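User: Structure please.
Assistant: Input sequence and predicted structure:
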Amino acid sequence: MRELFEQKKEYNKLREINKNLVEKHSRISKEISFMRPTEDDLNQKRRNQRILDDLKMKLVTKDTQLMETEENKSNYNLYIIRMKEENLVISKSIDQLRQTVREYDRLVAKLEKVCNRVNGQRTHIQDEITNFSKDIQSFSDFTSQQLSRYKQMINSTSKAKKMQKQSQ
């Protein structure tokens, strides 16, 4: 009888285990049934896929815009560098032109000094020429007077000699 009790105990245990397993199986089956996609789930999945595709397209568009922006930034940086180089060249040209202007101003100042000196010398020379002309005129007048006197003296000497010859 003991054996019978033992077997009965074992039987009850096995039955309990079986019951638990059946419950567990039914619970898992329910969970699996929840995991199967329904029509709504499939529709939602398609909508989600469309949204995902749209988002991927937007991402590609944004990536393209980002690349264009980077390229524009690079181009602008190159343009700025080129402008700075041109600015440097122009600054050097301006400096050279300023130096040339200073040099020309210095030369003009020298030419003005020379011109003033030459004008002063010309005025002095004209005054000297005027004085020389007056001296020549005075000398000419003096020589004319002397020649007249000399002619008079010669004429008087010649008349005196003639008269002396005639008186002789």
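Residues 56 and 155 are 141 Å apart (CA to CA).
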